[in-house]
């Protein structure tokens, strides 16, 4: 008895009346869905991943796509996804790989939180007429200032730690060269430089073509230490130690050898074609005091000129962990929620491990404040930030700034098909195949990303103005300006927000 | 809306409450008759070294012993009395205003650098959060506070403020939206020697409250005004900043202006904004704050509420309306409108 084939996930069809046999679909699909035979386009829907490249490139809108064209007997528990996973695992005996963020149907807390606006008793502020300040500093801040007198003038005696200055509280998170293409990284880098913010290198080194934007790059030191040397550390504007990632808390990473081309191998400082395996823990960090040593070593190596961030996945105890990090000398803690994207993660981790960023940031901010160490670190939130309203809400919950990842890729064309781990990204983003990479033009894509950040920044200014706030620090931790809509009492307590109408 | 006024005699010549009663009533257009109040510094020369703890009791037989017990744990009640009141046609004695002249035992707060203040602050928070039916609404030395639900002239007559004299008076004519009719919601708001009158709404209240609560303050008055007093107490008394610097933290210059400043100033303002970002007060407001040494008035950083000041001799007047100042002092000189966020400070010379 064999299990047989699982039904099609997607069905592609071509309207042959519309089709003019231009062959663009055939050229564009790296998965081999289309072929031309005897003046007709033939289709193999089984290999389709719903990347929409063919649909976007068809000049006649002749292609359509349907998801799950074959019904299963419906069952609320034994969903088609569950059944198909079992078929696949029964056949292969392996862990199921997946891409992008959590695909489980958990409620989205962001969508159950609403923002406030002014009416009558106080005026809303029009950002077109009045100044609106989104400038954000990331790093350690003094809790008390001391002043002295020098030649009859007041002088500041408190020494400030290095901070990154952002024109908008939106940064781009760490996506390595290897996981994404060089063109993708170049596009992101040019965009952040243009809008006055920062991006992460990921654990893939810093390619020399990015040196012109190095003052806008946060260089990552992760458990594989790929691409790390003193030159790399000195080039970055800040350094980030990656402990964990929201999409796969508690496990490491694996860049398959096929993606390690000559250029990736040089940037990562590993042999060409070899698998790049980042272990689950850092093998020199087995406790919080070891983290403190690494933070101090990195600072010492770079003459205490650069802020050092520590990134953790949002897990049950992240508030206490963040408090430990705040005491390690780190300048910022990055909390990555369970909706964070990834090139590849075991599906069981992506969908079932970790907690949502909204709850994590709320508890981290509360814990740091109770312990009186909120100024010791900035809090950067990431993992599932989809729009400017999410940025406003997470800042109101207590974050200083956000990292976006998937949203920036979507701005470059990504359709969230979740097949990044195959390395065949038809949009030239999550691939190293030269012909595919060439499809992404950094001149165009960088403008798209820049536009996105600019548009969100404008929306954020409008939201703040409507709330009668003209400076981002007055939104930060201002949970009074949030209300929970149909959130349960337990979660509202964690978020410390009132229900709508209260 | 709301109308505010403050006057300080820099030579500590005492004034009675007649003038401020008339001035505050001049701004009835800004109020609704549901809340008014006055604070006066120098009101209790005989008890100047004692904390004048003012309490609204809902009844005396049940809650007063509890408050007395709490106070006795932390120090000595030298004298206590009902605050004299004279019921008006439209202003009934909803609460029983009482004052205790209290001397805290500094040895009970050994780790504090200001143990007496900290004992009193602890008591205020304790009573207000744990004893229902008792509300401490003032706790400074030599400071009297009179407030109730009514028009300014009614409240003034209810307490006969003309019988009191002091060298600094503040008044507030309330147009409530949040807690109408509640005496505790009327201004001035007082903690230790800080008193605040406030016109406006602080849109950053949530941020300010989270910040201040992490330093042990508890917001119990359901109003954004109390955070102003707590913020001043934290930055000036506990962190040792000057009044000018504290105001610059609450209503800082914009980054555009800071970027254009000379290096030394730029460094100072950048540090203020970094360290005290959570203390920045946003939204429309005009505020007058007083303590033992001075009185300061300022507005939000884009001046969404009015504030004017005038000077006559040793007296500095700050108010929402020029008319109110002129009612009090027809010969006032130098009526001026300060810039947004610019502190107007009057300090004692004697």
* N-to-C CA distance of chain B: 35 Å
- In which range does the helix fraction of chain A lie? 25-40%
SSE succession of chain B: EEHEEHEEHEEHEEEEHHHHHEEEEHEE
- Report the count of strand segments of chain A: 23
Rg of chain B, please? 19 Å
Secondary structure tally, helices of chain B: 10
What topology, given as strand order, has the largest sheet of chain A?
11-12-13-14-17-18-20-21
CATH topology of the largest domain in chain A: TIM Barrel
Greatest contact between two chains: A-B, 45 and 41 residues
In the CATH hierarchy, the architecture of the largest domain in chain A is Alpha-Beta Barrel
Strand order of the largest sheet of chain B: 8-3-10-1-16-15-17
Overall 3D shape of chain B: globular
Distance between the termini of chain A: 61 Å
What is the CATH H-level superfamily of the domain at 3-30 and 184-347 in chain B? Aminohydrolase, N-terminal nucleophile (Ntn) domain
For this structure, what is the CATH class of the largest domain in chain A?
Alpha Beta
Largest sheet of chain A: 8 strands, parallel, barrel
